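Our consortium's second objective concerns turning raw sequence data into structural hypotheses that experimental partners can test. To show how far this objective has progressed, the report includes one record in full. It was chosen at random from the queue rather than selected for favorable results. The single chain below, 145 residues long, was entered without modification.
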Amino acid sequence: MRTQKALLGLATIAGLLLGAQFALADEVTPDTSPPPMPGREFCKENPGKCDEARAKHAAFCKENPEKCKDREQMREQKRAERRAYCQQNPEKCQQERAARKQRKAEMKAKCGADPAACREMKQKEHESHRKQQQQQQVPEPKPAQ
């Protein structure tokens, strides 16, 4: 659960940084990172700029596919990094795993004692997760006509 929250926090920070970069940068040169994809709100307010940004992003990714990894590639990379870390630090990984199991058992006991509060907490977490997913999801670019 802690790792999941940390990854979620990192993804949120990355999204904010990419959004700030998009807002501040007029043009991205090919030797830098890919231009960020615009969010839904931006696209609703600025459909022309949104299409232009999508086209820039698609062109950059065609020219530099190694810099435009998809989500599954990134997840697999993180898994591989974690496996390597755990091979180098087996006792630390074991302790972290035990701590996660303990927190899970504590939450299960709390939810058994007060199911209404647990349902409310889960609902809040689902809503916040849904909002973060909506901020990260971007509609596919439309083909040029």
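The partners drew two points from this record. The CA atoms of residues 3 and 9 lie 10 Å apart. Residues 72-137 form one domain. Both points have been shared with the crystallography group to help prioritize constructs.
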